[in-house]
Amino acid sequence: MRLERRPASFSAPRIEAGRGAGAGKALRRVAALLLAGLLAACTGRADERAVVRFWAMGYEGEVVTRLIPEFERLHPGIRVEVQQLPVTAAHEKLLTAFAGDGLPDVCALGNTWLAEFVELGALTPLEPYLARSPALDPGDYFPGPWQTGVLDGHVYAVPWYVETRLPFYRKDILAAAGVERLPRDWQEWRAALAAVKREVGPQRYAILLPLNEYEPLLNLAIQQPGPLLRDGGRYGNFRSAGFKRTLAFYKEMFDRGWAPPVSNNQISNVWDEFGRGYYAFYVNGPWNIAEFRKRLPPSLADAWGTMPLPGPDGPGASVAGGASFVLFRASRNRDAAWKLVEFLSDPQVQIRFHGMTGNLPPRRSAWARSGALAQDPYTRPFRDQLERAKPAPKVPEWERIAQELRIVGERMVAGHLTVEQAAAELDRRADAILEKRRWMLDRPAAEAAPAAGGAR
């Protein structure tokens, strides 16, 4: 703010002989008070803007701050405060904020956490906001990521960025093994895995499926027609024929020596081992495109690629991951927060965000407008895969059940459980985790009504 010249009527303190130092201090004090008053006036005008508190996790929370100045220029009446949450502490911080009535206005929430915050009653249904935002067309979004935010018949979340899993593969090793066409279904994948194993010998493998990760098994399981949980999420459905078919295929890859029975902590790192040919297939997410480009030697720059995930009977589904925007019910600035959601959901802004982070846009129009995304041979298979991505089960307990998937899968690979036993054990563990959910859902209405009335 520009300081105006002092008006003629202003009287400076008189400086008497011998008191110059004290008078100088008085002058400086008066000047400081005037300056403080002027700055306070400027600050007061700035504070009249609506303040939107936005929480975002991990690296994305750092990068998104570069987009905020443009938003504030377009919306001079809004100021955005971004808080970056560490991924490992974000869930606890959000629950603590909910308990203490300290949630922000808008947040980028992990897709598997949405059901929990819906059950807590913390999220605002978004249908009224979407109705006045025709540019946010649900049909422009990949269906699986969009459906992650639809719970109990209401839209509670708008995807910000998406991820899913598919195989990274070594072109040169597949060519040496005589694999002329990328496998499209499990039977063709079996043939390719067997051919690679014959080519690389006993000390190397065809595929890495780290036993300390549940995602490889989950992405194979989501391809089956039956749900992973049944009866409205009350019970596990792991003894279904489809899931047992998944378990059998997963176990076969270890039994035949196509995959090493190791965690990713038991190898130097996944990029170096991929580069030296320890395995030829690795099922993982889009962030590894940048990692492989950076970490593999120049001699292998054209020796690897990505491909859609084969399914039981053709190109298969995979899990829709990522983060989505939500508005919290307790927010007093939901309208201003929604303007931020609209801005960050704009296809051109999503293209810029992809360039900053490598995260994939959830809108088809962003892919169509971005030459880099449309032409990149490494991202194109993800574009194909996202059309078939499916939400994980939308219950608050899902992440706990997913960890049991990893534990039981590892026991099966070690030979402690058969496929039948592993399926039964998963159902037993899932049913125990879901016991409270069944009690909540199945209470008679007469029992639930007094509790609801008391809460009000």
Automatic annotation (TrEMBL):
Whose protein is this, by species? Answer: Vulcaniibacterium tengchongense
Assigned protein family: Belongs to the bacterial solute-binding protein 1 family.
* Principal cellular location given in the protein's record: periplasm
- KW Disulfide bond (keyword) present: no
**Assigned keywords, A-Z:** Signal, Transport
According to the record, the signal peptide region is none
Q: Which InterPro entries match?
A: Bact_solute-bd_prot1, SBP
Localization terms from the record:
Periplasm
Protein name, UniProt field: Carbohydrate ABC transporter substrate-binding protein (CUT1 family)
One GO cellular component assignment for this chain's record is: periplasmic space
